[in-house]
Amino acid sequence: MPMPKESKDALAKAGEYLEEIKHLASKPFTIMEVCGTHTVAIAKNALRDLLPPTVRLISGPGCPVCVTDSSDIDRYLYLAAQSNVITTTFGDMIRVPGSKKNLQALKAEGADVRVVYSTQDALEIAHKNPGKDVVFLGVGFETTAPTVAVSLEIANREGINNFSVLSMHKIVPPVLRLLAEDEQLDVDAFLDPGHVCAIIGTQPIEFMAKEFGKPGVVTGFEALDILEAIVMLLRQREEGRSDIEIQYRRVAKAEGNPHAQTVVKRVFEPVDASWRGMGLIPGSGLGIREEFGSWDAVRKYSLPVFHSPETPGCQCGEVLKGRIYPTQCALFGKHCTPLKPVGPCMVSSEGSCAAYYRYYQRSDD
């Protein structure tokens, strides 16, 4: 069967990008992809193997499940074990290990844990189970925060008092600042997250270029998107520039989505949040405002604060900081696999370790 014209055109365009990258990358150039979906796309399309050796791609803290701190995991496991609680969550959270067990194990022991595809599903469960308390585990970046905010406004408006959210949401700009200030991290430029910037725009991350001289390109998730973004970053170096540019123009705009931003601000406020392997980052989380306190699981259940240690031997934190490749962790592929994960980076579909395990298991220099 002959190759469709669209595929031929895409291959030709990819070849052009790779030729330009080869031409521009005469000196070493390290790029961090911030988004976990970029990590998966890069691995799936073998882009790291197609690039010249002077261009190095490393993963960052772009998987919301992976950056959820061990203490927060134990906190929601404690809540899920309560007899009158129905825990609703996205599927990636089911197998993330806590200090002793995970949601899957709790479910096997009789806890009511349900996978949902949206906060609307969780609200429907609350409607149908008036005698139960339904908790949604709010894990995600700015991309998912607006839909969770809307669910809280609906619960408030309709008086759905048996619904609440445990907010573990993170926001990206503070962790980018942490990375930029990290003297141990040798990164020249960033592939910025397309879906996050579709919400927040580029202004909140402009400081990366202006203060730290770290150029960035807001990038889509197709192989051609990523290759074009790498070309754009190399062109900036060639021209002596440091800017935040948008490659993902079909979705992301400089101003972002003002309506989504307004909804999030009505319901959430910035709070300090702990990130796996990175510690407490000021203003990097989203807490539920007092006006919506009746639907805040932390307030509603007076949840205790846990101080859970990191899993011994797991180097997920070092992977998230871009200091090592997943294959450089001693547990990778041996004691830690997708079937028996030790850390969340091997669980989530966006996790770096899971992507490396699925698409290539080899050592990196």
How does this model look, in words?
By secondary structure, the protein is of the alpha/beta class. It is built from 16 helices and eleven strands. It has a five-stranded parallel sheet with strand order 2-1-7-8-9. It is globular.
Please give a handful of descriptors for the protein shown.
4-stranded parallel β-sheet, alpha/beta, 5-stranded parallel β-sheet, single chain, globular, 365 residues
Give the helices and strands as they follow along the chain: HEHHEHHEHEHEHEHEHHEHEHEEHHH
What's the arrangement of strands in the largest beta sheet? 2-1-7-8-9
Largest sheet: 5 strands, parallel
Q: Into which percent range does the helicity of residues fall?
A: 25-40%
Binned strand content: 15-25%
Count every beta strand, where a strand is a DSSP E run of 2 or more residues. 11
The global form is globular
The count of helical stretches stands at 16
Low-confidence stretches: none
Q: Which structural class do you get from the secondary structure elements?
A: alpha/beta
Question: What is the end-to-end distance?
Answer: 40 Å
Q: What is the mean pLDDT?
A: 94
| Overall radius of gyration | 21 Å
